[in-house]
Specification:
This protein is of the alpha+beta class. Helix content is about 60%, strand content about 15%. The strands form two sheets. A five-stranded antiparallel β-sheet has the order 2-1-5-4-3, with helices on both faces. Strands 7-6-10-9-8 form a five-stranded antiparallel β-sheet, with helices on both faces.
Length: about 550
């Protein structure tokens, strides 16, 4: 850029700042209103129209001097000065400013038509004024402008049928010429008004929809129960936050806006954050990730981030929805730990379940097998040849048909809350087997939901009891022998003792000795028999324990 361009640009900037300072109240409308944009068009017309109007006025002044006709110069200078007054006056209201500007150029248009004829610049001014009126004023002013332009052309044709066009080629005379010009101007002006009005209406609807969408977004943003914010993807500075964010994180709205997104992140996470933000500036794809944030009180929380890229006023911003999942993660960890403890408990219970000496079968309320251990098939026998248990199978499929009714009665008693116990004997190929059964109700929330069937091999216990009973029979026999059989010879010996001590004759003495010998021999036989019985009774049985 050379020095001349720099000076010109600097001058234009100062001029724009000066004019904007005079017209600032004109731009106070709501941007979502069509009236705001009409005002902006009018503002632009005032800002750039004045210097451009000087360019248009200069040839008229020159032509006025060259032809020695001051009328054109006076008209151009008056119009330029009026434009300047309307632009720089600080007292004029906006609507009055618009009407004065439109009214200022109609005398110029009339003079130019008179001076240059129907084919001169005056016609273009009339058409242009209709277009400008449509752009900056309500549409009914535009239709009045079309009628006013037509009236001007008709009036000139009637009042000056031969006097127009003194500075240019003589216009075509006759009634057909002004009718043609008037009708064509009316047609073009009317079409322009309709089209511009149609565009402005659609633009107004678009702006209204945009305003409604903006209000809806703002409401969703502000009233969202979850923290939301906007931050600049280039500077990482917070641009806006909602009430939920200030409430949840503890920072005020102003404190948030003075921070960057990195200020609420752990320092170790910021490098990855910067890379993610920069990569997303290029891709623009919404993403979801997990992060850690600090609250104002220093608490570190886990959050799930849902984010989208937005372009606002030429800047790429990131809209973020943050969901605090700290409690969820804590609960998940606790659940995982509880599941691990449960798994270990189940493993321990399973080990006990499998290592117990009893066979165990669990059935549900529909008498289907839920679980069983390895010893169930060995010790739980409902028929002569046991089957292998299968989960989900009906327990009655393992029970002999002859025992169905009895077993069903036992299950009903257990399902009613009673623990049922009984012993059953089975004949094996080489021996007898005794099994002790226990049917216990299984409760879930104080309701019987199944039955636990246990079976234990009690054959050694039954054998032991039998031997004890046999031993008791021997003891009772020995006791009877002692109390009855042994007593007789002892009584005879006791009766012979006085005869041996004081015999009256030798014959009595010899007879006593003979009877004593017989009694002693009888007693010896009895004692031998008792000793034999005692030996049998002394063979105590031993209990053999099974795994």
């Amino acid at each position: 850029m050379d020095a001349g361009q720099y000076i010109l640009k600097k001058w234009l900037i100062k001029y724009e700042q000066f004019v904007k300072g005079r017209l600032t109240p004109l731009t106070a409308e709501d941007e979502s209103s069509i009236e705001y944009w009409k005002t902006q068009l009018f503002f632009t017309l005032l800002l750039y129209g004045l210097p451009i109007s000087f360019v248009a006025a200069f040839p008229g002044i020159y032509l006025s001097i060259a032809n020695r006709d001051i009328t054109m110069g006076v008209v151009d200078i008056t119009t330029f000065l009026g434009f300047a007054i309307i632009t720089f006056s600080g007292r004029l209201a906006l609507f009055a400013r618009k009407l004065l500007l439109i009214g200022l150029f109609y005398p110029l248009a009339i003079y130019l038509i008179i001076a240059f004829g129907y084919i001169g610049p005056g016609i273009f001014y009339l058409f242009g004024l209709t277009v400008i009126t449509t752009l900056i004023l309500p549409v009914y002013f535009a239709y009045w402008s079309v009628l006013l332009s037509s009236a001007i052309l008709i009036s000139i044709a009637v009042l000056l049928p031969q006097g127009a066009g003194q500075y240019g080629p003589q216009q075509v005379t006759g009634s057909g010429s002004w009718v043609a010009f008037t009708s064509n101007l009316l047609f073009l002006s009317g079409i322009a008004v309709i089209l511009i009005h149609r565009i402005i209406d659609r633009l107004g609807e678009t702006l209204l929809n945009k305003q409604q969408l903006t209000q809806r977004y703002q409401m969703l943003f502000e009233k969202s129960p979850l923290p939301m914010w906007l931050f600049d993807t280039e500077t990482l500075q917070f641009k806006d936050v909602n009430e939920a964010a200030t409430r949840h994180y503890g920072y005020s709205h102003r404190e948030f806006l003075n921070k960057k997104i990195t200020d609420i992140r752990p320092a170790a996470d910021n490098f990855a954050l910067a890379e993610t933000v920069q990569a997303n500036r290029k891709s623009g794809i919404p993403y979801e990730q997990y992060a850690r944030h600090y609250k104002k009180n220093g608490e570190l929380i886990d959050v799930r981030i849902e984010s989208s890229l937005l372009e606002v006023e030429g800047k790429l911003l990131r809209l973020v929805l943050a969901t605090d999942i700290t409690e969820i993660i804590r609960n998940e960890k606790e659940m995982a730990a509880a599941n691990e403890r449960t798994r270990r408990s189940e493993s321990d219970l399973r080990a006990i379940f499998e290592s117990t000496a009893d066979g165990i079968v669990l059935i549900d309320e529909h008498n289907r097998v839920k679980q069983f251990n390895a010893k169930a098939a060995d010790y739980i026998r409902f028929q002569q040849m046991p089957k292998q248990f299968e989960i989900g199978r009906d327990i009655f499929s393992y029970v002999s048909s002859l025992l169905h009714d009895d077993f069903a009665q036992l299950l009903l008693r257990s399902q009613s809350g009673e623990t049922v116990q009984y012993d059953r004997q089975y004949r094996l190929s080489e021996a007898m087997m005794w099994v002790h059964y226990s049917l216990s109700p299984v409760y879930t929330d104080d309701k019987v939901t199944g039955v636990c069937i246990t079976g234990r091999d009690i054959t050694p216990v039954k054998t032991y009891v039998t031997k004890i009973e046999q031993q008791n029979d021997l003891f009772r026999e020995i006791a009877w022998t002692q109390s009855h059989v042994v007593r007789a010879p002892i009584a005879r010996l006791l009766g012979l003792l006085p005869l041996i001590r004081n015999p009256e004759t030798d014959e009595d003495y010899q007879a006593a000795l003979k009877y004593m010998e017989e009694s002693i021999t009888e007693l010896d036989k009895i004692v031998s028999a008792v000793i034999h019985q005692s030996h049998r009774a002394g063979q105590m049985p031993k209990i053999v324990e099974k795994d």
